[in-house]
Amino acid sequence: MSALHRALLVALLPSALVLSSCKKPYRVGEHVMVEWDGKDYPAYIIERKGRTRYRVHFDGYDSRWDHDVGLDGIKGRVHGQVTPPPPPANVARAAGINPKASSSAEPVSPYKVGDRVRVTWRGSKYKATIIQILSPTRFRVHYDGYETAWDEVIDIERIVGR
Hints:
extended, SH3 type barrels, 2 helices, alpha+beta
């Protein structure tokens, strides 16, 4: 190997390592899998707490289970619909849930914060953006091109497409 090749290798290797270790940062509203108590649960990011910490809401669980998690606890992005596993028995008992009963988890919403949708209003269709998820079937939307005074809470039946 020539001296020029060695110099190029020494100069470019650190850059290649940094670029290969970088991954796209997570964003608020994104669905991710989060490890908790040895199991992976679907959740979505509700707040960025720092460069490497996020607050997540576990799909199908009450907001009292919202949790701050580091990058090591996020196991990746969710693609498609995922059913959350039932809570561990000790957590279920603490929440007043019979652990032997079927899962009390609600269905996961097909939409997330930031999704662009089309919404019916008085017989017409308008472009909107989901700005808050209230339940798997209820959302707060902002109508694109209109002031925030027109933002409203809608049921999933009013969404007619993306």
